[in-house]
Amino acid sequence: MAEKQDPWYLHVGLYVVIALLVVYLAKIAIIDPQEIVAYEKYCKDESRLRMKNLKEAQVLYNQRFGKFTNNIDSLINFITNDSLVQALKVGFDSTMKRSTNPFWKLSSGEFTPESLRLAPKSSQPYLIQIDTSITFDSVINQNKKLLRIDTIKKIGTRYVIEDPDGYGRIGDLNNDALKNTASWE
Question: Which residues of the chain fall short of a pLDDT of 70?
């Protein structure tokens, strides 16, 4: 007895389905993860550049006002309108043969003060905190009698900037040695 063979178009259809499945699996297994890794790297690098710029803004703010701030709007306003910052942004150090601009260029191009507001991945604001320290000083007369206790409250001697997406932090509220240090350096 002769065996009956399947029609040719059934085989062609199966080959097409197999080829489509191979292309789809290659996209899922190879192409998509590369895009995700590239996007994650971009977000991490961009966020760290923005945090470095926030640090530079805090340092300049501290030089001008003698304290740090936890208000992002104050920092942006300061960067945008302060004459010291504007002079630094356009200045040139002839001794070192380089710009005096303290701000880093972002991955997407030039630095803009508004870029400091939000993290690139989640569009959440950066967490900026400053410390408050209270010290007590006792005043004693010559007879060793306590006259009074002076309370000194200092606000903004240290700061910390944290990324809402977990890409690091700059500064520390409890340690002066880590005042301007980034966690990834």
Answer: 1-3
Q: Alpha-carbon Rg of the chain, whole angstroms?
A: 29
* Dist CA 100 CA 85 (whole Å): 10
Long-range contacts of 78-87 (CB under 8 A, 24+ apart): 79/113, 79/116, 80/113, 84/60, 85/60
| Helix, strand, coil percentages for the chain (3-state, nearest 5) | 45, 25, 30
Helix (H, G, I), strand (E, B) or coil at 170: strand
d(CA 155, CA 133): 6
pTM equals 0.74
Closest-CA residue to 117 (of 89, 88, 83, 75): 75
pLDDT in tens, 23-65: 888 888 887 788 888 899 999 999 999 999 999 999 999 999 9
Please tell me the distance from the alpha carbon of residue 49 to that of residue 170, in angstroms, as a whole number: 11
b/e map of 65-102 (b: 16 or more CB within 10 Å)? eeebbbebeebbebbeeeeebeebeeeeeeeeeeeeeb
- With contact defined as beta carbons under 8 Å apart, do 122 and 130 qualify? no
* Inter-CA distances, 50 with 14, 39, 104, 107, Å: 52, 16, 8, 10
C-alpha 110/C-alpha 105 separation (Å) is: 5
Residue 98 in tokens: 């380089």
- Confidence (pLDDT) at 150: 82
